[in-house]
Amino acid sequence: MQVLRSVGVLSFAKMAGAVYGALGLAFAPFVVLLAVIGSMVGSRQHPLGPVFSIVFAILMPVIYAAMGFVMGAIGAFVYNLVAKWIGGVEVELAATSPTVIAGTVGPSAGATI
Question: Which alpha helices (DSSP H) does the chain contain, by range?
Fold first, then answer.
């Protein structure tokens, strides 16, 4: 077992922002559908209800990505602080053999393809 003692804050924040942005993009159509249905079902219909839901669907992935970036950075920073006091997360890593791609030279310079 190896111990993950620290995490790159910016690296983790970028990854979290990308993941949460993708989730926002995936969930946006469902939010729009529910908002449009909700605006039609109510006793008093607001004429701009569908417009607001479409604007929100466009902004939703951006908002999710921004919040994922910020919360990812805070989470990585807190992890690094806590890992100094109590140790990091234990992970088991497995070594893999290098992949040889035609026309490239791998780790050993004398390798033939």
Answer: 9-41, 49-86
Q: Is residue 110 a part of any domain in this protein?
A: no
Q: What angle do CA 12, 17, 18 make, to 5 degrees?
A: 100
Q: For residue 49, give the amino acid letter.
A: G
At 58 the pLDDT is 87
Q: Is residue 103 part of a domain?
A: no
Domain hosting residue 84, numbered range? 2-91
Structure tokens at 48: 């701009």
pTM, entire model? 0.71
Question: What's the pLDDT score for residue 85?
Answer: 93
87 Rama class: left (phi>0) / alpha (psi -120 to 50) / beta: left
Flag whether 100 is in a domain: no
* Residue 82 belongs to a domain: yes
* Count of the separate structural domains present in the chain: 1
Residue 42 carries which DSSP code?
S
CB 26 within 8 Å of CB 64: no
